[in-house]
Amino acid sequence: MSTTTTFCVGTYLTTRLEELGVGHLFSVPGDYTSDLLEIVDTKSTIQRIGNCNELNAGYAADGYARANGLGAVAVTTGVGSFSVLNAIGGAYVEMIPVVTIIGTLSNVKRLNAINAGELFHHNTGPGDENRLVFQGVTVAYEQISDPLQAPNQIDHALTMCISQKRPVVIEILEDCYKLPCPAPQGTLSPTPLFTPLEQLKVLAPTNTYAKGIVTAVHDAAQEICTLLTDKKVKPVFWIGHELGRYDLQELFNQLLAKTGVPFVSSLLGKAVLAEDTPGYLGIYNGIFSQTQLADYDCIIALGVWNTDLNVFGEKLKAPLGTGNPAAVLATRNVVKIGTTLYSQVSLENLLTEVLAQLKPQSSTSDVYSTAVLPACEQEADQPITYDTFFAGLNGYLTPQNLVVADIGLSTFGGSSFLTINRQNGFLAQAIWASIGWSVPAGLGASFTPGVRPIVIVGDGAFKLTCQEISTMVACGCNTVVFVLNNGVYAVEQILLNAEPFQKDSTAKFEAANVLQAWDYISLLKGFSNNDPQAMSAAVNTIGELNEVLAQISMHSGAVWLVSINLNERDFPASWQPFVTPKD
């Protein structure tokens, strides 16, 4: 970086973001951020994306980060920062690196608030409310009031973000953006969270701590190798999102090649490897699974979090987190095998040591076929259903598509069963589970080179965040949004009282779960002001779905909003255990 260029706080921040691969900044204008947005527009290569509200901007930055590595969002203090909090909470829980930039009161205004009791708009008072609000969902929080300290503060926050894979906040006082500051020095890179195994082995002879970790890694790997080579057990790998967050896919591919053991993925880890990888059996998501792990004696979970939605409604034969010696749960810094806990054993070091100890296995006599949805073979004039929609869409998807799925019937046993032959080609907020996330997240993912996002969202969730379709149109995106339009909050109804979904039932839905009908064709016209690159359709039959999919391919540069008109009592077949009357 040349030190002859004059930098201010704003250009320092945008330069560092550019260096880290951020090409788009999601934002809602506010008087405390106006100078920053002007700098973005005139003095950086970052494209500013104007969102419809701050929550959506946060979701968009989340989707952008999942697809591209690092996301950024800029909002004003108070009304903006409090609004974006939900999105940042989800990013924190699911390990998504997002930089939140908050513009706030100038130095003079802060002094007036403290000393004279003056209350300024968008503020709750003279306290440090933003730091208090965000402290539980960030790994770094920097408030910039001195331009001379700004470079160190910005570098610290960004380094923490890319190292921990979690959100940070950079709060900037409004009178600091254009103040001169020192130029960037060097480049930023992640700080390793764990010492590499080879380095630990070098240190071990003279360092008791390093020796202890090397021993733990060796012993944990040895136990896993024993399980993998025991001819009396039937092992299966269950892989999760941490393999993707820490770029460990290649190590796992080597493990597959050495063992020939099949694997399944968690919902959050879906498509962490392309699903045409040999040995892939499908998703495991409790009841909503393509393969039941109870069929296996030895479950080796790598990078999987033991959450309620990962084991939805089912007890495993080799339950994770218990004393069953056939259950292995390995996450980023701890390994549990039966009742034995190995701490400070990173997932990367564990995989490295397993590969070193493991001898290549003879090819398995079993033939594992990749799980796929059955083709839709019903007549073209048959009414569309959840299952026939997903079967039809599955035959349409290519590796150029990136699926962004909302939570609910649109995910569990639905989009989760799609075959995704693109590594990291499926995005879902499968722990935080904030409905409506998918539409703005799909907007963020739309800025990924070489992909066409497919958003799948229920009509109830769509109504929370649908305005971002107008942003897709404004930015010239070619995103496709499928709204699963059944007119009800189906998951809530099923969990409350599934009787309306039982065969031949005439039971009424709970009034709170009934949605107001929308005209989606006209809605898109309003959002796009009749832009010719904004197209909509309604699908009532299997034949109409096939026709619309063909049109979507033909108009490859357009934004599409497609209403999949479902019977209100329809549901994916995998939900039948929840619907069947209990004895």
Automatic annotation (TrEMBL):
<keyword id="KW-0456">Lyase</keyword>
<protein>
    <submittedName>
        <fullName>Indolepyruvate decarboxylase</fullName>
    </submittedName>
</protein>
<dbReference type="InterPro" id="IPR029061">
    <property type="entry name" value="THDP-binding"/>
</dbReference>
<dbReference type="GO" id="GO:0004737">
    <property type="term" value="F:pyruvate decarboxylase activity"/>
</dbReference>
<keyword id="KW-0670">Pyruvate</keyword>
<dbReference type="GO" id="GO:0030976">
    <property type="term" value="F:thiamine pyrophosphate binding"/>
</dbReference>
<dbReference type="InterPro" id="IPR012110">
    <property type="entry name" value="PDC/IPDC-like"/>
</dbReference>
<dbReference type="Pfam" id="PF00205">
    <property type="entry name" value="TPP_enzyme_M"/>
</dbReference>
<keyword id="KW-0479">Metal-binding</keyword>
<comment type="similarity">
    <text>Belongs to the TPP enzyme family.</text>
</comment>
<dbReference type="InterPro" id="IPR012000">
    <property type="entry name" value="Thiamin_PyroP_enz_cen_dom"/>
</dbReference>
<dbReference type="InterPro" id="IPR012001">
    <property type="entry name" value="Thiamin_PyroP_enz_TPP-bd_dom"/>
</dbReference>
<dbReference type="GO" id="GO:0005829">
    <property type="term" value="C:cytosol"/>
</dbReference>
<feature type="binding site">
    <location>
        <position position="486"/>
    </location>
    <ligand>
        <name>Mg(2+)</name>
    </ligand>
</feature>
<feature type="domain" description="Thiamine pyrophosphate enzyme central">
    <location>
        <begin position="224"/>
        <end position="316"/>
    </location>
</feature>
<feature type="binding site">
    <location>
        <position position="459"/>
    </location>
    <ligand>
        <name>Mg(2+)</name>
    </ligand>
</feature>
<dbReference type="Pfam" id="PF02775">
    <property type="entry name" value="TPP_enzyme_C"/>
</dbReference>
<dbReference type="GO" id="GO:0000949">
    <property type="term" value="P:aromatic amino acid family catabolic process to alcohol via Ehrlich pathway"/>
</dbReference>
<feature type="domain" description="Thiamine pyrophosphate enzyme N-terminal TPP-binding">
    <location>
        <begin position="9"/>
        <end position="104"/>
    </location>
</feature>
<keyword id="KW-0786">Thiamine pyrophosphate</keyword>
<dbReference type="Pfam" id="PF02776">
    <property type="entry name" value="TPP_enzyme_N"/>
</dbReference>
<dbReference type="InterPro" id="IPR047213">
    <property type="entry name" value="TPP_PYR_PDC_IPDC-like"/>
</dbReference>
<feature type="domain" description="Thiamine pyrophosphate enzyme TPP-binding">
    <location>
        <begin position="406"/>
        <end position="559"/>
    </location>
</feature>
<dbReference type="InterPro" id="IPR029035">
    <property type="entry name" value="DHS-like_NAD/FAD-binding_dom"/>
</dbReference>
<keyword id="KW-0210">Decarboxylase</keyword>
<dbReference type="GO" id="GO:0000287">
    <property type="term" value="F:magnesium ion binding"/>
</dbReference>
<dbReference type="InterPro" id="IPR011766">
    <property type="entry name" value="TPP_enzyme_TPP-bd"/>
</dbReference>
<keyword id="KW-0460">Magnesium</keyword>
